């Protein structure tokens, strides 16, 4: 046998149309096969075609990722809208329940006051405003008191660390700056 037919990679040999590297449509399934006698312009043309193909694949990938991101953002927006609608509905239910409780209290008190509705409404309003005001005052005192205690403890600990490290703290240094 001829050396050219035995070695398909030998210079000057080309793959036949029915060879294993060619698809049914006649396109090479491998990268462009080059021979030594091929012109450099043909090689550059083949490389240019491959770069064009690579650019198309990169563009395809970027478009797919962009569309996936858009789809994710749309799903997040839909879920956020559903959450907002749910919160509005839950808030409306709570408000309705509070109104019904207040109305019931007012009507109950009106029955105690000889069926004078105005007296029941008035006393209920005053009681609820008092509860809201008292609860707010207690909550604020507790919140600010706890916050103040934490700050006092923080700076007391820091002054203790200063005394251990420097022999005096910032307060002592402020009273006796000459040392």
Strand content: under 5%
Uncertain segments of ≥5 residues (pLDDT<50)? 15-29
Number of domains: 2
- Structural classification: mainly alpha
What is the overall shape? flat
Secondary structure tally, helices: 4
Largest sheet: none
Helix content: over 70%
What's the oligomerization state? single chain
- Using DSSP, what is the number of strands? 0
Gyration radius, in Å: 43 Å
**What value does the average pLDDT take?**
83
Provide a short characterization of the protein structure.
The protein is built from four helices and no strands. By secondary structure, it is mainly alpha-helical.
Describe the structure.
By secondary structure, the chain is mainly alpha-helical. It has helices at residues 3-6, 40-112, 117-166, 170-175. Helix 2 packs across helix 3 (117-166). Residues 15-29 have low confidence and may be disordered.
Comma- or semicolon-separated keywords:
mainly alpha, 179 residues
Please write out the topology.
Elements: H1 3-6, H2 40-112, H3 117-166, H4 170-175
